[in-house]
């Protein structure tokens, strides 16, 4: 087995089918020769996802009901990830996120190119702005259903970029210095070495557990951080603990307090030196992802050559303009360049 995708659902009967479809062979591109499985955890849901619905997406899909007294997804994800026999483990802590079509193939290629990468993706919210804001202006599941139906994302998942907004953690687009990812991959041995998700995080949704794991992963000697370009996950509104509440009701004080108690210091993003791995086919109307303040022109049918290149963060905007116009030709920077 090449890849094991562990995706966690909690009360997501509406959102799960779209997420699962986005992991299917009917949607993911370039996965014909990749052996992978999708473990769909139905974690303490009041309204269960029918097992038949999960299996309907293909032989790769396995339904995994999980029962626990915990309001955190940590134990369930650790259990199924640790039981995987695949070389590569992909973790999706929030099952409300639809994937873009090239993620699995690019993850696989990263592990062919590098010995021990930690591959991660950009996060976006479906809708006109962050859902923490849009829900205050009438955005809801009905509006979102209509929005998704307005674009042919099932046939071309990259159309999701046209109707989505950057997540708070990714406000500078692909060249943000991310502090978390809701779809990341590493070898099973690296996952085991890191101890998986820290099971002590037991606040609703896991609190800062995803941020904690990201910090530990990018700070681990031997793991190579790789950010995928041209791909993302797209969050569906579902009443999430952190993503679908107004800012004044956000539980970050509780999350921060738990983090300080467990880690012994206030949370701080770990700076890291990512490589960037680009898609072999990109169709983006949302140029702000590359250069948010002044997007360069790019046609919807332009494509980009695959690349793997280190990029100094302070040169990201200038490089973004050049790379988009040159269709991602290789660029080399001197080793003396530093990030931030």
Keywords:
340 residues; alpha/beta; eleven-stranded mixed sheet; 11 strands; 19% strand; globular; disordered C terminus
Structure description:
- The structure is a single chain.
- By secondary structure, this protein is of the alpha/beta class.
- The protein has a single domain (3-263), classed as Spore Coat Polysaccharide Biosynthesis Protein SpsA, Chain A, CATH 3.90.550.
- The protein is built from 10 helices and 11 strands.
- It has helices at residues 16-21, 51-55, 74-82, 103-113, 131-134, 141-149, 188-194, 209-218, 252-263, 316-325; strands at residues 3-9, 36-43, 61-66, 88-92, 97-99, 117-126, 164-166, 184-187, 224-235, 275-278, 308-310.
- The longest helix has 12 residues, at 252-263.
- The protein is globular.
Radius of gyration: 19 Å
Q: Structural class, please?
A: alpha/beta
Q: What is the terminal separation in angstroms?
A: 39 Å
Q: What is the fold named in CATH at topology level?
A: Spore Coat Polysaccharide Biosynthesis Protein SpsA, Chain A
CATH architecture assignment: Alpha-Beta Complex
| Helical fraction | 10-25%
Which shape, going by the Cα principal axes?
Answer: globular
Approximate strand percentage? 15-25%
Number of helices: 10
The major sheet is characterized as: 11 strands, mixed
Q: Detail the poorly predicted runs.
A: 280-288, 290-307, 310-340
Number of domains: 1
CATH superfamily membership, which one?
Answer: Spore Coat Polysaccharide Biosynthesis Protein SpsA, Chain A
Keywords: Transferase
Protein name: Glycosyl transferase family 2
GO molecular function: transferase activity
Organism: Ochrobactrum quorumnocens
